[in-house]
Amino acid sequence: MVITGNAIELVKQISDESIDFIITDPIYKNIEDYEWLAKTASRVLKGDSSLIAFCSDIKMFGCHLVMSKHLTFIKPLYYVVIAKQFAALRGYNIMTWTTPALWFTKGKHKPHTRTLDTIIAKGAAQGNHKWNKNTEAYRRWIKDFTHKGDLIFDPFSGSGTVHYVCDQMGRRCIAYEIDETTARESTDRLNSVQSIMEFEQ
Length: 201
Known about the structure:
Elements: E1 3-4, H1 7-10, E2 19-24, H2 31-44, E3 45-54, H3 60-67, E4 72-81, E5 87-89, E6 94-96, E7 98-106, E8 118-121, H4 136-145, E9 151-154, H5 161-169, E10 172-177, H6 180-200
Parallel strand pairs: 1-10, 2-3, 2-9, 4-8, 9-10
Antiparallel strand pairs: 3-7, 4-7, 5-6
């Protein structure tokens, strides 16, 4: 299930160096959330582990600056949606297909197999959240950065896509969402998937 509440308070329940991987999609305008995320990751991530955080093109360098205080920056990764409808960068008169994701490490870490720094999404995103992403990027990076049974953390869960993918790929997940309605819809989505998987078994 997706746990409802403020991640800043809920994360206090997570033990030091207990998380294998963090992948999350914060609200892009809140630079302070990115610094909190990196500082938190420096505590809860195991040694030699990674964090991937989606951000906006415009805010990317600001996010990099505050997160680099706590973690080691490796490179940007990219999520691309080629579609008839574009996401607009407000105030810049630019329509974009690309969303960057910043890859940081605690200590030294790399994927256990060759991964892709650019994921081109195919098809419509699942879930009802306004900024929901397709599963391709999550599936590829979770597969390449983690192993079955690893514990993954998503403090800004939205529609629960990280948890959804973890359930399907044999990873454990801690997911937080501050909005009660969104968290409830995410949990319903996860429960429906788990019911289907149990039926198929």
